[in-house]
Design a protein that fits this description.
The chain is of the alpha+beta class. Among the domains are: 97 residues, Conserved hypothetical protein from pyrococcus furiosus pfu- 392566-001, ParB domain (Alpha-Beta Complex); 180 residues, no CATH class; 42 residues, no CATH class. The strands form four sheets. A four-stranded mixed sheet has the order 1-4-2-3. A hairpin with a 2-residue loop joins strand 12 and strand 13.
Length: 581
């Protein structure tokens, strides 16, 4: 056996070598980086040619020679041995089969030795052609219980996440968990998942905390830095879950708004709203309430909700009940001067007169608009308003719009600005596109299209709305953006939420313009139908046969049909024109 320095390019491959399959590019890159960093640690074994040549044939170390040539080495050290009778075939096979990879535990011990000698993690990674993350992962073994290290040295290794969980726990905690899950003769394999689960501690991150340093100190919260987290985010956390949630609860109690309440989260993380409360997904109004709650991650979340109007209590016979503290006083209504039948007669006469005046009396356009507001405020009008709870009725809710048109003396007196405000407020209460009893139907869609309400639609590129879309709809939403569809739906949705965070997204189905089919169907259903002609015959004589003697229908006073235009004198025609104007 002799040690020599030769040119690696002059060495010849052994035709009888045992390993003929090509190595992976990653393994070759690792060996090349190691040779460039520290040279060839173990010299290849060569032998003299037997068939009259004076060169050397590689007996062991073909990959080392090949990567030495790739590294540009001019000469390398080789061990020269005598040529075997079988050409070194048996020796090559035995060496290949007996070769064993270094266990992760031995790799960690070797890395710790290099660190003690002054090597940095980055330098070790470059020399071994490994990522720095792999070096740091191996160094986690320094915090592992020795009994666990012995098991890992046998080749029974946990995955990276399990190893991080084990290494982050104290040795006492590891010892307690190891007693329950250590291997036995019947089951020599360790369930590292069970070990990691026993050592897992829920992390509550500082970036999710709404409270400040004062509450953190009051609850004894000590933040721990996650050294493996990205450098551009706040990775501080605490495992004291009770203290974290307690500080969050106290912060909510100190900052709850005037019309707000603190509620609990349900099984799926949704807020448990009060009974009969209706969640508001759009823009909340001043009369709406706010519910604050903690989600699954311990974050403070808030939603708006709407409560139904409180009903006034009624006594017997419709008497009003006046409540003052704990005392209840019932005031009976006095007996009216006019009986019920007389009141009904007055109502019929008033209605006939009102309808006649609306048909014939001259009325200005501004007065017509004001009367329309008054009509919606009538107690016979029931409106399921989309601006309030659907149990609110027109008489109770829409009268406020008409009340602003009266002066202090109770007379209808207004200017055009006040009238416009009243009409806008009335339309806001009446027209609704909500998918409940307050839906106005296609007319609300037409109204929104006329006044360009599409420009006022809120941004729909939120997690709440995008989670309601299918994969096809999400991919269609990516069409006009720089976002590319992902393999998973949730990844596509998250990318769209981030993209529209500062922008605005409106789904095409949310636009106000109704489809021609819906509009045509509504028009056909509500088109004016011709009324049957009235010949003026009273009802008690309408069914008599032709032989009966009947007085002419026009002789009955008060039953004459309305005069037609051609039958009116000039003076009455002039009056109608003035009324129309």
């Amino acid at each position: 056996m002799e040690l020599k320095f030769v040119d690696p390019r002059a060495l010849k491959d052994n035709p009888d070598k045992a390993r003929r399959s090509k190595s992976s590019p990653q393994a070759d890159a690792l060996l090349l980086a190691t040779i460039r960093a520290v040279g060839i640690v173990q010299p290849p074994v060569v032998a003299l040619e037997t068939e009259g040549g004076n060169g050397y044939v590689i007996d062991a170390g073909h990959r080392r020679v090949k990567q030495a040539i790739a590294a540009g080495l001019e000469e390398i050290a080789v061990v020269v041995i005598e040529r075997a009778e079988d050409g070194g075939a048996m020796r090559s096979l035995a060496d290949t089969l007996a070769h064993e990879q270094l266990s992760p535990v031995d790799q960690w011990r070797a890395i710790e030795r290099l660190v003690a000698l002054g090597w940095t993690e980055e330098a070790i990674a470059v020399a071994l052609a490994l990522p720095v993350r792999q070096i740091r992962k191996l160094r986690l073994l320094a915090n592992v219980l020795p009994a666990m290290l012995d098991q890992m040295a046998k080749g029974d290794m946990p995955n990276e996440q399990q190893l991080r969980t084990i290494a982050s726990a104290s040795l006492d905690e590891q010892k307690e968990v190891w007693k329950k899950h250590k291997p036995s003769k019947a089951d020599p394999q360790v369930s590292w998942w069970s070990v990691a689960q026993g050592l897992t501690k829920r992390r509550m991150y500082a970036r999710d905390a709404s409270f400040g340093d004062d509450l953190a100190q009051a609850y004894g919260i000590a933040w721990v830095e996650d050294l493996f987290a990205p450098a551009d985010e706040d990775s501080r956390y605490t495992t004291d879950v009770e203290a974290f949630l307690g500080a969050q609860q106290e912060w909510m109690a100190n900052t709850v708004p005037k019309r707000g309440a603190i509620v609990e989260a349900g099984q799926w993380g949704e807020p448990k709203l009060p009974p009969k409360a209706e969640r508001v997904y759009g823009k909340p109004s001043k009369s709406d309430h706010t519910a604050m709650y903690l989600d699954r991650d311990g974050k403070v979340q808030s939603v708006a909700y709407r409560m139904p109007a409180a009903k006034k209590p009624k006594g017997e016979n419709g008497a009003d009940v006046v409540t003052d503290g704990d005392d209840i006083v019932v005031t009976a209504k006095p007996r009216p001067d006019v009986t019920r039948k007389g009141t009904e007669m007055i109502g019929d006469l008033r209605t006939d007169a009102l309808h006649e005046a609306l048909s014939r009396a001259p009325i200005g356009d501004d007065t017509l608009m004001a009367l329309l507001v008054l009509a919606f405020a009538g107690q016979n009008v029931t409106v399921a308003s989309g601006a309030r709870d659907v149990s609110y009725y027109g008489a109770a809710g829409l009268g406020q719009h008409a009340a602003r048109l009266f002066d202090q003396e109770g007379k209808l007196d207004f200017d055009m600005d006040t009238l416009r405000i009243a009409v806008r407020s009335l339309l806001t209460d009446v027209l609704s596109c909500r998918e409940n009893r307050s839906d106005s139907g296609v007319v609300a869609r037409v109204a929104g299209d006329v006044i360009a309400a599409d420009n006022f639609l809120a941004n729909m590129g939120t997690e709440d709305f995008l989670s309601c879309l299918s994969r096809q709809a999400l991919e269609a939403a990516c069409a006009d953006t720089s976002v590319l569809p992902r393999q998973k739906v949730k990844d596509t949705r998250a990318a769209l939420v981030e993209h529209f965070k500062e922008g605005r997204f409106v789904h095409p189905s949310a636009l106000f313009a109704p489809t021609p089919e819906k509009l045509t169907s509504w028009l056909k259903m509500n088109e004016a139908r011709e009324q049957p002609e009235d010949d003026g015959t009273p009802a008690d004589q309408d069914q008599l046969d032709g032989d009966a003697v009947v007085e002419p229908a026009h002789d009955y006073v008060g039953d004459d049909p309305a005069p037609q235009d051609e039958d009116l004198p000039d003076e009455q025609m002039e009056t109608y024109k003035v009324a129309a104007e």
